[in-house]
Design a protein that fits this description.
Blueprint lengths: L2 H29 L8 H39 L2 H25 L6 H25 L5 H22 L2 H31 L1
Helix pairs in contact: 1-2, 1-6, 2-5, 2-6, 3-4, 3-5, 4-5, 4-6, 5-6
């Protein structure tokens, strides 16, 4: 991937994250009461804060994405293809179990219901994204896409889950999932264009 292609992906992901944060902010504002605005200036500043926050989340997402690419490169270099796929399935399953069960039963950190809903939501988004990735590429993209969307996303939100505030979790998970989905869905286009040129 050339620097030009990477910078284009970087700025597009930045925009996607900003839009995802605005959507998350509007959802929280409409359904949870959100922030109580004291003046018109607060109403005008709020969207720009959301855009900036979304840009920060997108950078965080991109760090996770490039960490995943490095891990995947090393995994395919060390293990056979089929073995690496099994390892990814096991790691994604363990990440889901950690999110849904271990934090509640072992750590006593959170309620089972909210973690279960979050785990199911992440898994459903991962399956939908993997479906579109397979349609764009080939059937071998199922496991890596689900692994990235499940395991890497859960690793990225661990810090926010430690806070234990549902609004904070919603506020980060929406732009993060949108950024992760965008990056994994456009990766083959970026690398194909690079190979053609």
């Amino acid at each position: 991937m050339s620097l030009r292609k990477w910078s284009k992906l970087f700025f597009k992901t930045l925009l996607v994250g900003a839009i995802g944060a605005v959507i998350a902010g509007l959802i929280l504002q409409l359904f949870n009461g959100g922030i109580q605005f004291k003046s018109t200036v607060d109403i005008l500043i709020y969207p720009s804060i959301l855009l900036g926050y979304g840009a920060l989340v997108s950078v965080y997402s991109q760090m996770g994405f490039f960490a995943y690419l490095t891990l995947n490169y090393m995994g395919t270099g060390i293990f056979r293809r089929r073995t690496w796929q099994y390892i990814q399935v096991v790691l994604a399953t363990l990440a889901l179990f950690e999110l849904v069960f271990f934090r509640t039963f072992v750590g006593g950190q959170s309620s089972l219901q909210s973690d279960l809903i979050l785990g199911i939501a992440i898994l459903l988004v991962a399956i939908v994204v993997a479906y579109f990735k397979v349609k764009s590429t080939n059937a071998s993209a199922w496991i890596p896409t689900i692994f990235f969307m499940v395991a890497v996303t859960i690793v990225e939100i661990i810090g926010v889950l430690g806070i234990g505030v549902q609004n904070a979790t919603i506020f980060i998970i929406i732009p993060l999932l949108v950024c992760n989905a965008y990056q994994i869905l456009t990766l083959h286009k970026v690398t194909q264009d690079e190979k053609k040129s």
